């Protein structure tokens, strides 16, 4: 089988890591011919491909496939994409991300590729956008949905969102959870003391971690507000913020203004292979993003045996099960966020109980081999259907 994956850019991020693992699995486990088509553009998140993890995977980088809408670049990017697909002659084109998804599906449809699949890692339209922008993106997604044979969502919540927005009928969607290499997370405890020593964390420190870009809608300000309440009752709590971004300086200033500097640690940007060891140093993970398909940090923490606290958005409730693997909090509810952090911070046995429950429940479900097997079964079903 010849499979071309199309994604706008290979920054360090969940959708990109998911795509890379899928490509490598198809090559190594199924013997498929795979081509990864992507743009050259990277951002402050870092470049996933520069780490050498792609190995012998063939990669085609297009000069004009870029994230921002730009008529000239988009027209040239479409032409480059058409040339790449004609040269590779794929049986399947599998697209990801907004720009890569729209241009990739359009070109693959015009080229009459036998099977065209699009993965929804997160909807490009959301309630925090201006109405005009949201309407434009929703219209583009409806148009593109008619130019593919099936769509894969990383959570049931994503399917509900897309169906409710009339992007496509429900039967056109399948939920396949985003895969990852689970073994490093299962061994996260091996690094606990080393990482805690690295950040000067004492034995009695209770570490609440957050893994996210320091960016808008990621909810760091909410966590800081909740922390002001938490540290008054549990002064040994420390908050480890993993990631970097444009809000680093403003968040630092706010932390200082509240007198919380000793309670917050910024790790800065870290490569994906360091995330398991950082989770190993944590006692729980909090995720306060206002929009996310299904944040990989949530199952990663659970597979490492750490309970989670998450805003109840998109697919979070499919892994953050209140009272079992952690707590769900209404978005923006600072009081309930603080209460949930206090509850876990104050009860070691509860943390361990919830962490073990999450590990048992989600380890196999989020293995990247499980994801790739299900995706390839979908390819086979599409290729075996009668041609119209």
From TrEMBL:
Pfam families assigned to the protein according to its UniProt record, in alphabetical order: Glyco_transf_4 (PF13439), Glycos_transf_1 (PF00534)
Domain Glycosyl transferase family residues, every copy: 192-360
Protein name: D-inositol-3-phosphate glycosyltransferase
Top-level taxonomy: Bacteria, Pseudomonadati, Planctomycetota, Planctomycetia, Pirellulales
Glycosyltransferase subfamily 4-like N-terminal domain residues: 17-183
PANTHER family, per database record: GLYCOSYLTRANSFERASE
SUPFAM superfamilies: UDP-Glycosyltransferase/glycogen phosphorylase
CDD domains according to UniProt: GT4_CapM-like
């Amino acid at each position: 089988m010849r499979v071309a994956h199309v994604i706008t850019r290979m920054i360090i991020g969940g959708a990109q890591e998911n795509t890379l693992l899928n490509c490598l699995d198809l090559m190594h486990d199924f013997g498929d011919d795979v081509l990864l088509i992507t743009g050259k553009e990277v951002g402050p998140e870092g470049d996933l491909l520069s780490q050498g993890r792609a190995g012998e995977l063939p990669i085609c980088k297009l000069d004009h496939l870029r994230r921002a809408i730009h008529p000239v670049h988009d027209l040239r990017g479409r032409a480059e994409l058409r040339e790449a697909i004609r040269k590779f002659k794929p049986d399947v084109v599998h697209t990801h991300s907004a720009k890569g998804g729209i241009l990739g599906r359009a070109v693959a449809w015009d080229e009459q590729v036998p099977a065209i699949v699009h993965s929804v890692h997160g909807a490009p339209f959301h309630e925090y956008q201006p109405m005009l922008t949201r309407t434009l993106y929703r219209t583009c997604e409806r148009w593109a949905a008619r130019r593919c044979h099936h769509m894969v969502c990383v959570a049931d919540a994503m399917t509900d969102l897309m169906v409710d927005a009339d992007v496509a009928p429900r039967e056109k969607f399948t939920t396949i959870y985003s895969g990852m290499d689970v073994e490093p997370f299962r061994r996260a405890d091996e690094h606990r003391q080393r990482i805690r020593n690295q950040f000067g964390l004492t034995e009695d420190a209770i570490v609440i971690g957050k893994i996210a870009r320091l960016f808008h809608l990621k909810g760091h300000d909410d966590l800081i507000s909740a922390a002001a309440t938490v540290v008054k009752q549990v002064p040994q709590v420390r908050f480890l913020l993993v990631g970097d971004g444009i809000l680093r300086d403003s968040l630092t200033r706010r932390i200082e203004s509240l007198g919380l500097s000793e309670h917050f640690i910024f790790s800065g940007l870290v490569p994906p292979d360091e995330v398991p060891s950082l989770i190993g140093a944590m006692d729980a993970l909090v995720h306060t993003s206002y929009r996310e398909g299904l944040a990989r940090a949530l199952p990663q923490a659970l597979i490492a045996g750490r309970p989670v606290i998450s805003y109840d958005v998109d697919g979070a409730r499919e892994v953050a099960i209140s009272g079992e693997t952690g707590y769900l909090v209404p978005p923006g509810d600072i009081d309930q966020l603080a209460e949930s952090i206090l509850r876990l911070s104050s009860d070691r046995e509860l943390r361990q109980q919830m962490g073990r429950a999450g590990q048992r429940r989600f380890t196999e479900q989020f293995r990247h081999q499980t994801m790739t097997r299900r995706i390839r079964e979908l390819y086979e079903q599409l290729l075996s259907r009668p041609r119209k």
